[in-house]
Amino acid sequence: xxxxxxxxxxxxxxxxxxxxxxxxxxxxxxxxxxxxxxxxxxxxxxxxxxxxxxxxxxxxxxxxxxxxxxxxxxxxxxxxxxxxxxxxxxxxxxxxxxxxxxxxxxxxxxxxxxxxxxxxxxxxxxxxxxxxxxxxxxxxxxxxxxxxxxxxxxxxxxxxxxxxxxxxxxxxxxxxxxxxxxxxxxxxxxxxxxxxxxxxxxxxxxxxxxxxxxxxxxxxxxxxxxxxxxxxxxxxxxxxxxxxxxxxxxxxxxxxxxxxxxxxxxxxxxxxxxxxxxxxxxxxxxxxxxxxxxxxxxxxxxxxxxxxxxxxxxxxxxxxxxxxxxxxxxxxxxxxxxxxxxxxxxxxxxxxxxxxxxxxxxxxxxxxxxxxxxxxxxxxxxxxxxxxxxxxxxxxxxxxxxxxxxxxxxxxxxxxxxxxxxxxxxxxxxxxxxxxxxxxxxxxxxxxxxxxxxxxxxxxxxxxxxxxxxxxxxxxxxxxxxxxxxxxxxxxxxxxxxxxxxxxxxxxxxxxxxxxxxx
Length: 519
Fold this sequence. Notes:
Layout: E1 26-27, H1 31-35, H2 42-45, E2 52-53, E3 60-66, E4 79-86, E5 96-100, H3 112-119, H4 121-126, E6 127-132, H5 148-155, H6 165-185, H7 195-208, E7 214-220, H8 221-232, E8 237-245, H9 252-256, H10 259-277, H11 279-282, H12 288-304, E9 307-309, E10 312-314, H13 316-326, H14 333-344, H15 351-361, H16 367-380, H17 387-400, H18 402-405, H19 408-416, E11 425-426, E12 436-441, H20 449-458, E13 463-468, H21 480-492, E14 500-503
Parallel strand pairs: 1-11, 5-6, 5-7, 7-8, 8-12, 12-13, 13-14
Antiparallel strand pairs: 2-3, 3-4, 4-6, 9-10
Helix pairs in contact: 6-19, 7-8, 10-12, 13-14, 16-19, 17-19
C-alpha cells in the first residue's frame, strides 16, 4: 500500500496501523491550483519530450523537467521525471490518452503500459497508454534516506512483537536516526515528495502530450494520486478508474489504522481455511485452528533460534513479512504454504529452493522504496507526534492483530518524528467530476473494504463494484466480470446504473512443494 505492494518477493508492503488525527485546513475541489500554485512557467510548458526506446520492453521513454516546488517554481533546482508511453495500435480508432500510475507509494510506473496493453488489446487499440516514475522514485529524481543495511535492521533483527522497554526504546532510536538520515541525505527534497506536488507533474505531462483531457487508471496508492489529480484538475479528466482504494477522503494515519485488522482478516478467513483444505499437500493442519497453531509454533522457533539459510538469517519478522506479502493474491497462497514447509524442515529442501528463499529474504524492504513511502505518507497529511500514544496504540494492535500490527510502532515512530509538512490538504468530494468507477474486494488486506466504502461515499457520483474475494488489485486479475465493466467504461463510457458486484477470481489448485511430490 503497494498500497503498497512490496518491491521484493517477500517484502511486506507498508502495513502499519495508525490512529486518527485532527485535519489541517482543507482546500476545496479545484481550488488548489487557482489559489495556491502560480501559472506554469513557460520554460516547462514549452519543453519537448524526446521520445526514445526504453531500456527494456516495447515502450518509448522520455525525460520531463519539473520544478522542485510547484508553489515556488523559481526556487531550487529542477527535478527529473521519467515518462513512458505505448502508442495506440490503430491510429484511426484512437480515442485519447489513458494515464496510469504505480502503487506504494514507492513503486515504479514506467513499465506498466506494456503490461496493460498486453492484458487488454482493446484498450491498447483505443488509447495511447502512458505512465511515469513519480518524483522520488525509480528513474526519476530519487529521494535518499538511509542505506540498505539500516533499513534491513528495521525489520530483520529481533522480533517486532517484543514490547519490552528496551525494544521500544530501540525502535524510537532507529526511527529518529532514519529521519535524520533523510534530512541529511535528501538534498532538501523531503517537503516536495508529496502527492500534491506529483499531481502537478501529471498535469504538465498531460499538457506536453498535447491533450486537453486524459482518462486515468490507478490501483492501490495510485487511487490516491488519481483522486487528488481529478480534484485539483477536474476539467482535465474524462474517465477515471480507481482500483483497490485508499481512503483518499481522510488522512494517511486514519487509513493505515485499519490495516492490521484487514491483514489478519485475510490471513484467518481466507488463507488458513485454504491451507487446511489442502493439508494433504502441505501438511500444515487439517483445520484453520491447527494451521494457525503450526504457524505460531514456527514463528516461536524462529524467535528462539533464528534460522541461517545460505547466509541469510531468518527471524520471526521475516516469516510475518512473507505472510503479509503472499496474501495479497490467492495465487501466492501455494508459495507461502510451501515456504512454511521449507522453514520447518530446511534440510529437506533442495539446494536451489534454499538459495531462492535466502535471496527473497535478504532485504525485506528495498531502501529506495522505504524512503519514498515515508516521504509521501508522513508528508501528505498530519500525524500524531505523541510517543506515549503510539506505545499504547501499537501494543493494542500487536495483541489484537499481530500479523501486521507488530510493525505499527516501527512505522508510526518515523512519521511522528518527520519534519512538519506544509503540503495543502486536498478535500476530495467529486464535485465537477464525471462519474468515477471504483473497484474493491471485500477481504483486500492492504486497501481494505471499509476504507473503500468511505472513499466511495465521499466521491459524489462514483460507482463501486464490490468483488467477493480478497485479492488486492481487481482489473488485470483474470476476472472476466471486472474486466468487462472496466473496458465498457473506458471504451464506451458505459457505467452500471448503480453500485454492483462481481464474483472473485478463482483460487488455483495447489501444487506440490518444491516442484516435487508432497512430503
